[in-house]
Amino acid sequence: MAGLTTYQAGRLFFIGRKTDGGVRAHERMIEQCQGLWTDGSSLWVSGLYMLWRFENVLRNGATTPVGADSKFVPVEGRVVGRTDVHDIGLGEIEGVRRPVFVNTLFNCLATISDTASFRPIWRPNFISALVAEDRCHLNGLAMEGTRPAYVTAVSRSDVFDGWRDRRHDGGVVIDVASNEIAASGLSMPHSPRLYDGKLWLLNSGAGQFGYIDPMDGRFTPVCFCPGYARGLAFIGRHAVIGLSRPRNGGAFSGLALDERLSERDASARCGLLIVDIDSGSVVEWLRFSHTIDELYDVAVLPGVRSAEAIGFKSDDIQREITIEHP
């Protein structure tokens, strides 16, 4: 099953299966949720000004009354401020497992702090100062184990909001260890992921899913995405890709994606694509026809049939009490 975040609608969704085989969708409200990370047991998700950690409390084959086999309960919340958190990974900082997140407002990678809003741990070498100016629109993070390996940015701009002028071809992939540009000439790239020996990403402004050769920086498209693509996860030989409908007159408009949709006599859609990474064929899809226009992140929960989460607004969160036994 898959989890996904809906930036504009402010919902964390789980898409899974009912016990009779039908599709089940479960949602919880998290304002402006974007980044999502899970290993099936723990789950981190970003909100408007928060980072939330949920833990799955079901054990030994237990299920909820409606048949869900995973139940995520919020156990930790970190106030990080409106730093526009994008992708999240789980890294090792000075020997301690901590979330690593893209702090887009401050153009850096950061982690949580016990005494401050966040602790910066890396920034591109073309960013001259740690300032709240969203200069390059750093957004995507590819982890290699517990190490941040690659990030994506819409441009190399070092001025306030400068990335908006370079949406067509200013996009870059940066090698975190060397702080060198691994690929350039992309259009609003998002969601870099290391999988099956390749560096995959979404060349969102051009409507492309493909991979980068780090040796020469060449991008190889695998398939066309009929929407603004953000959010990428893998399971077996398949990629799960999130699609959004571009905002009218906003940062998503006026890109090559518009021309390519027109050439195919198609309109941008919001939903999920399941793509065979060997052939580039779309093998399954899920489409949101109303209410939800934008997705941000996608995560796969292997081995989980159906999941749900405790929300913050009902009495459930008051009564959900768990005990850690020694």
Whole-Å distance between the termini?
32 Å
Q: Which residues sit in consecutive blocks of at least 5 with pLDDT less than 50?
A: none
* Structure class: mainly beta
Helical segment tally? Answer: 2
Strand order of the largest sheet: 4-5-6-7-25
Count of beta strands: 25
Radius of gyration: 19 Å
What's the main sheet like? Answer: 5 strands, mixed
Order of helices and strands: EEEEEEEEEEEEEEEEEEEEEHEEEEH
- Portion in helices: under 10%
Tertiary shape: globular
| Strand residues, percent | over 45%
Describe this structure in words.
The structure is a single chain. This protein has helices at 256-263, 316-319; strands at 2-6, 11-17, 23-29, 36-38, 42-46, 50-56, 70-79, 85-93, 96-103, 108-111, 119-122, 138-144, 147-153, 171-175, 180-186, 189-195, 198-203, 208-213, 218-224, 228-235, 238-244, 270-276, 282-288, 298-300, 307-309. The strands form 6 sheets. It has a 5-stranded mixed β-sheet with strand order 4-5-6-7-25, with no helix packed on it. With 326 residues, it is mostly beta strands. Strand 17 and strand 18 (208-213) form a beta hairpin.
